[in-house]
Recover the amino acids of this structure.
């Protein structure tokens, strides 16, 4: 049963997954080339000092990619389900709506984590090629809230899409956004180093929010 | 059951979001600037004088006896601070208090050093350039490598991003020869070439001893200073100045401020009673006759005037109604039982810190509880006993919880 759901989910999201991987690799290549260009045109020490002292984030081009990926994945995964209320067919399967919803969101959470691995690997390769390890590790610490925003953005969008009432959708959209926006509030590196754990803790609440709209969908609530 | 828990998760997220966004919106509407005075010491009046905005468009120039002046008269009373204007107007006096002055003399004998809470609360990657301090050339130049110092000192060449082992070894040995104990606790310098000379770095080792490291003709010069190891140093602010009176300042974890003098690194405690490094900006302004220390936060400003022998000559204190005592703050405390602070003007770090607004917020909570009960009982006609936890949420989070539970209503649960 789970294998069948997995296959169904893959059919829906495969193009978005492949498209995002291409976009992500494209952006990473661009950042790599841009940094290489900087080093080719300037004194390397001035680039290092620009990153350290002026706190220029050379990887800011990929700041919003994870949250973009999360939103797109949620849309392509759940919009086909809510159009003509197809998702209600799932209620006839021999697994509960809770399990099926958590499994479905689990699949895309796993995919977003895979995206994050590519993201982190790319930054590690670029950082390791041009910068001392302190700058590379600070880049990974700095992007951690952005990657978290991807996961939270996905879970929030999934809940919004599954929700059957437009008023609730609007309320969710308004209320899920402030927290996500705060994850992009940095103006330099390592600024979340003491608070990332707290943000992670609040994000845990997002892992189950999809179940209430699912329940409302099954009940036919307006 | 799990759907019910899911709803509570949504409610908690909404409460968190509202407690971030509503207080922010509230203060966008009701916040107003605090007009702090800018204090000078007038060598003409032999007393403090100040400028202060009374509103956005009105700036007064006044002394402590409430005499007000026009801007030009005011500036003539503070010749060391406005000598460039006085020079332009051709009225710069030839001497002040018997001291012959010229713009060049004033410039040479003036220094301003500022420490803000943000300077102490900002993330920094600990990679620093060690600038040649006795270059053959007039201008300072950035070296081709940065160094990291933790368990040992390592120089990394920027050209190929590799460790320069030979250089690292020479500097390691220089530190060890002076009795340096790794790992490093604090390193402080002024890594810029926009200054006339370089004094390298002051480094606090594992035993709290302070070492001075600089590069002289490509070679290390490391000195173990006599700065006491029990100072409980929080940070050092190093600022080179041609007068070579002091290397910089030490701020301790007990909010004391010391000056590291050029007199064999002897330290001098500055009279900064009531200074709180995490909340107050400290300004040390030096002119040919005096040293003025001023420090202020959102409640008060204190100034201490020292003569050239660092003896206290005069003091100034000014306070104003702090934001916490504004009517809008009291209304906010009733409206919002708490707010979530995500950033502070005193720090570059981001937070997720809950600030409770005290006992007055019980009024707001009570109103929120009554409003919730009224809406649920008479408007929505919800099942109350089955969803009692909604009232717990409102009892804890007041208006935030009330909005959340009234918008996201419970379902008829399985």
């Amino acid at each position: 049963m789970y294998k069948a759901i997995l296959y169904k989910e893959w059919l829906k999201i495969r193009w978005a997954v492949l498209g995002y991987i291409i976009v992500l690799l494209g952006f990473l290549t661009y950042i790599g080339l841009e940094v290489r260009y900087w080093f080719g045109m300037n004194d390397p020490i001035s680039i290092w000092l620009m990153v350290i002292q002026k706190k220029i984030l050379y990887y800011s081009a990929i700041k919003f990619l994870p949250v973009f990926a999360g939103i797109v994945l949620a849309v392509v995964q759940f919009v086909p389900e809510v159009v003509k209320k197809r998702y209600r067919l799932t209620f006839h399967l021999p697994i509960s709506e809770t399990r099926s919803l958590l499994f479905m969101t689990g699949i895309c959470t796993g995919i977003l984590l895979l995206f994050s691995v590519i993201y982190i690997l790319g930054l590690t390769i670029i950082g390791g090629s041009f910068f001392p390890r302190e700058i590379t590790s600070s880049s990974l610490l700095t992007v951690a809230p952005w990657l978290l925003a991807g996961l939270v953005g996905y879970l929030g969008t999934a809940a919004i899409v599954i929700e059957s009432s437009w008023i609730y959708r609007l309320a969710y959209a308004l209320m899920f956004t402030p927290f996500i926006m705060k994850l992009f509030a940095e103006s330099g590196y390592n600024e979340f180093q003491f608070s990332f754990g707290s943000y992670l803790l609040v994000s845990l609440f997002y892992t189950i929010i999809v179940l209430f709209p699912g329940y409302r969908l099954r009940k036919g609530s307006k | 059951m799990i759907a019910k828990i899911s709803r509570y998760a949504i409610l908690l997220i909404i409460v968190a979001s509202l407690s971030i966004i509503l207080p922010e919106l509230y203060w966008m509407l009701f916040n107003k600037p605090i007009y702090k005075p800018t204090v000078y010491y007038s060598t003409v009046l032999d007393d403090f004088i100040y400028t202060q905005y009374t509103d956005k468009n009105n700036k007064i120039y006044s002394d402590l006896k409430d005499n007000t002046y026009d801007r030009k008269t005011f500036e003539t009373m503070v010749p060391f601070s406005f000598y460039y204007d006085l020079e332009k107007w051709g009225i710069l006096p030839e001497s002040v208090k018997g001291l012959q002055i010229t713009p060049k003399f004033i410039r040479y004998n003036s220094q301003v050093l500022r420490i803000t809470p943000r300077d102490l609360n900002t993330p920094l990657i600990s990679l620093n350039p060690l600038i040649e301090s006795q270059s053959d050339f007039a201008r300072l130049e950035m070296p081709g490598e940065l160094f990291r110092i933790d368990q040992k000192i390592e120089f990394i060449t920027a050209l190929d991003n590799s460790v320069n082992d030979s250089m690292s070894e020479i500097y390691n040995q220089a530190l060890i020869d002076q009795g340096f104990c790794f790992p490093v606790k604090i390193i402080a310098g002024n890594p810029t070439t926009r200054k006339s000379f370089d004094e390298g770095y002051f480094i606090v080792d594992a035993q709290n001893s302070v070492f001075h490291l600089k590069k002289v003709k490509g070679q290390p010069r490391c000195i173990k200073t006599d700065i006491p190891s029990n100072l409980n140093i929080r940070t050092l602010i190093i600022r080179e100045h041609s007068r070579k009176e002091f290397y910089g300042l030490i701020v301790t974890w007990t909010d004391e401020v010391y000056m590291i003098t050029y007199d064999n690194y002897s330290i001098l405690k500055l009279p900064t009673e009531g200074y709180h490094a995490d909340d107050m900006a400290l300004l040390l302004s030096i002119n040919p006759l005096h040293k003025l220390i001023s420090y202020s936060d959102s409640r008060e400003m204190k100034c201490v005037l020292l003569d050239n022998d660092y003896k206290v000559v005069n003091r100034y204190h000014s306070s104003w109604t702090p934001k916490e005592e504004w009517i809008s703050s009291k209304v906010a405390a009733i409206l919002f039982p708490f707010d979530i602070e995500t950033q502070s003007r005193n720090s570059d770090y981001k937070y997720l810190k809950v600030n409770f607004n005290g006992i007055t917020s019980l009024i707001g909570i009570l109103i929120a509880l009554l409003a919730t009960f009224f809406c649920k009982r008479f408007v929505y006609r919800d099942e109350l006993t089955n969803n009692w936890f909604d009232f717990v949420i409102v009892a804890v989070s007041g208006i935030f919880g009330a909005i959340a539970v009234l918008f996201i209503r419970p379902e008829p649960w399985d």
